[in-house]
């Protein structure tokens, strides 16, 4: 392969990568994800499908990336004893993920909210 061919290949590869990054940024709309996710979870809270205050914990997990379980009660404004069943419910339903019973919490995206969280990726009625 000549230097010219290598340069052309690298330019093509970078153009393709840039195009895909721009496409995914448009589809995922990360800058407004927290609001969409919070609205979807609040809807589930108001309908009684999820425990009250779930949206606060899920939003914080999204923003911070990972949360220690000990932070959950302060985030939700409840006692640690009250926070435990809420966390268990959210993990069981897929709204939060954790590598173990005592591991840190990260946001999850169960299928039931994907259309709300990523409307361009999962058009309504797709799931």
Whole-number count of domains:
1
CATH architecture annotation: Orthogonal Bundle
Number of strands: 2
Number of helices: 6
Q: What portion of the residues fall into strands of 2 or more residues?
A: under 5%
The Rg value, from CA coordinates, equals 19 Å
Give the CA-based shape.
elongated
Name the helicity range.
55-70%
Give a quick account of the main beta sheet: strands, pairing sense, barrel closure. 2 strands, antiparallel
Would you identify the regions where 5 or more consecutive residues have pLDDT less than 50?
none
Helix and strand run: HHHHHEEH
Which structural class should the secondary elements be placed in? mainly alpha
Q: Give the overall average pLDDT.
A: 90
Task: Trace the largest sheet across and list its strands.
Answer: 1-2
The CATH class is identified as Mainly Alpha
CATH topology: Arc Repressor Mutant, subunit A
Q: Could you give the distance between the termini? A: 47 Å
Topology:
Elements: H1 3-28, H2 33-46, H3 54-64, H4 69-76, H5 80-93, E1 96-97, E2 106-107, H6 111-117
Antiparallel strand pairs: 1-2
Helix pairs in contact: 2-3, 4-5
Provide a concise account of the structure shown:
Helices cover 63% and strands 3% of the residues. The chain has 127 residues and is mainly alpha-helical.
Report on the structure:
By secondary structure, the chain is mainly alpha-helical. 63% of the residues lie in helices and 3% in strands. The chain has a two-stranded antiparallel sheet with strand order 1-2. The chain is elongated. The model has no long low-confidence stretch (mean pLDDT 90).
């Amino acid at each position: 392969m000549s230097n010219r061919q290598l340069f052309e290949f690298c330019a093509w590869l970078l153009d393709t990568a840039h195009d895909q990054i721009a496409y995914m940024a448009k589809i995922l709309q990360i800058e407004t994800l927290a609001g969409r996710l919070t609205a979807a979870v609040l809807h589930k809270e108001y309908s009684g499908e999820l425990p009250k205050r779930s949206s606060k914990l899920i939003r914080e997990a999204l923003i911070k990336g990972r949360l220690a379980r000990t932070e959950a009660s302060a985030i939700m404004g409840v006692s640690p004893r009250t926070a435990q069943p809420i966390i268990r419910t959210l993990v069981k339903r897929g709204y939060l993920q954790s590598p173990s019973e005592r591991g840190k919490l990260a946001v999850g995206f169960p299928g039931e909210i994907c259309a709300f969280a990523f409307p361009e990726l999962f058009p309504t009625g797709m799931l």
